[in-house]
Write a structure and sequence with these properties.
The protein contains 11 helices and 14 strands. The chain is α/β, with parallel strands linked by helices and about 325 residues long. It has 2 domains: about 220 residues, Spore Coat Polysaccharide Biosynthesis Protein SpsA, Chain A; about 80 residues. The longest helix has 24 residues. It is globular.
């Protein structure tokens, strides 16, 4: 068994593999490097076979999305730790050691992420992960160093070590035994927010999630779907509702779910006023899809209820939407935990 397996899920990302895979191999000595190809139709596979014969290639027959793609690939990987790494990430020297050393020392840490910086603006944190993830009491996710579209510049304060609520799937270190114990990523998510759901289930099972600022990588971001893409809007809104229903108590859901649905409606009409009719329809479609699988979600709740560890860490006790847009709290340090 390898200690660390770095697994890159690829779908038509030959240009990113050409740009970044060499550094992954160079800066990850002693680690197994794997590319799981999600049914690419470009020249990714032939490029890997010709240019990186030492990199293990797992071929999936179609594009299963982020969740199922990783689940299928990781069942074929024997290692103590998995690193789920986006193909559009530039790693740095010694990016592995600080995280693995931390997780070796603290067995209750199930997942961890490094500092995520922007590839195009290297002095700033990056949208997808920044310095560790949090949620508010309605389940809206945000990051230390990134709240909605306000992204902070890098600063020595972000070189720290701290416990967080979720670690980004752009570069996520995870214990393989915990990953499989909890059933991996939720296949129904396809893509977006699946790592937050997994981290939430880790908390329920008594594990912790950390951010290690001594390790850093650079993320291009938006390589699959840009933020304004209607498909991404659909997945984010639908998956957010699924995540809440699976992980919150029934008592919480009695008032949080209706309020969340109302706020989602308001977001939909804001898109409509902006002339983004497709995004408006995406949110309505997301809510319909959520209610259409409610029966399946009850079954998933029952599985989660077996792990009933109580926790509050990383949950902001306020409403991030209100505090950001109305109270103008744009930065993480403005929030009171």
């Amino acid at each position: 068994m390898d200690k660390v397996a770095i697994v890159i899920l690829n779908f038509n990302g030959k240009h990113y593999l050409e740009q970044f895979l060499q550094l992954v191999v160079l800066h990850s000595p002693g680690c197994q490097v794997i590319v799981a190809d999600n049914g690419s139709t470009d020249d990714s596979v032939s490029f890997l076979q010709e240019s990186y014969p030492s990199v293990r290639l797992i071929m999936l027959r179609k594009n299963y999305g982020f969740s199922t793609g990783y689940n299928l690939a990781l069942r074929q990987v024997d290692a103590s730790y998995y690193v789920l790494l986006n193909s559009d990430v530039e790693v740095t020297p010694h990016w592995i050691d600080p995280v693995i050393q931390l997780m070796d020392e603290q067995q209750t840490i199930a997942a961890c992420q490094p500092k995520i910086l922007s590839y195009h603006q290297k002095h700033t944190l990056e949208y997808a992960g920044a310095a560790g993830g949090y949620i508010d009491i309605l389940g809206y996710p945000f990051c230390r160093g990134r709240i909605f579209n306000t992204v902070e510049e890098d600063h020595p304060k972000f070189d720290d070590l701290r416990e967080v609520f979720w670690a980004t799937g752009a570069c996520m270190f995870v214990r393989s035994d915990v990953y499989h114990q909890l059933g991996g990523l939720d296949d129904d998510f396809f893509a977006h927010m699946e790592e937050i759901d997994l981290c939430w289930r880790m908390h329920h099972a008594g594990y912790r999630v950390f951010y290690q600022g001594k390790s850093q990588v650079y993320h291009v971001g938006g390589g699959t779907l840009p933020k304004s893409n209607p498909r991404k809007t659909y997945l984010n809104f639908r998956n957010g509702l699924i995540m809440l229903f699976k992980n919150m108590t029934y008592r919480e859901l009695t008032w949080k779910l209706p309020l969340r649905l109302l706020l989602d409606y308001l977001a939909a009409f804001q898109y409509l006023l902006q002339g983004k009719g497709k995004n408006f329809c995406s949110i309505l479609h997301a809510q319909i899809s959520f209610f259409s699988i409610i029966g399946k979600l009850f079954a998933k709740r029952k599985r989660n209820e077996k792990n009933n560890e109580k926790f509050t860490f990383g949950i902001y006790p306020g409403f991030i939407v209100k505090d950001y847009f109305l109270k103008k709290k744009k930065y993480f340090d403005d929030l009171r935990f």
